[in-house]
Design goal:
single chain; mainly beta; 4-stranded antiparallel beta sheet; 1 helix; 4 strands
Length: 84
C-alpha cells in the first residue's frame, strides 16, 4: 500500500494596505499584507497546520518581498481592515 504525504506552502492575504510605493522599484502598487503558512497532508487532504512562516508585503512588479517583524505585522494588521 502506498501512502502519499507531504507539506505544501500557501500564501494567505490578511488585509489590504491600499496604494503604496515600492521601496525597490518605485512603482505604485496596491499592496496586500500576507503571511506564509502550510499544512501537513495525507492523500492531498490537509491534516494539521505545520508551517507558520514569514509575514511580508509583496510587489507584483519587481517580485521583491519585504519581510516584516511580528511587531510591524501586528501594527499594520490593526490599522487596516481584513480581507473577506
Amino acid at each position: 500500500m502506498i501512502i502519499y504525504y507531504g507539506t505544501k506552502k500557501k500564501l494567505k492575504p490578511v488585509s489590504d494596505l491600499g496604494e503604496m510605493t515600492c521601496t525597490n522599484c518605485g512603482h505604485r502598487i496596491g499592496a496586500t499584507l500576507a503571511k506564509e503558512g502550510g499544512y501537513f497532508h495525507i492523500f492531498f487532504i490537509p491534516v494539521f497546520p505545520l508551517l507558520t512562516g514569514y509575514k511580508f508585503i509583496y510587489c507584483p512588479y519587481c517580485g521583491i518581498m519585504k519581510k516584516l517583524t511580528n511587531a510591524e505585522f501586528k501594527e499594520l494588521k490593526e490599522k487596516n481592515p481584513p480581507i473577506g
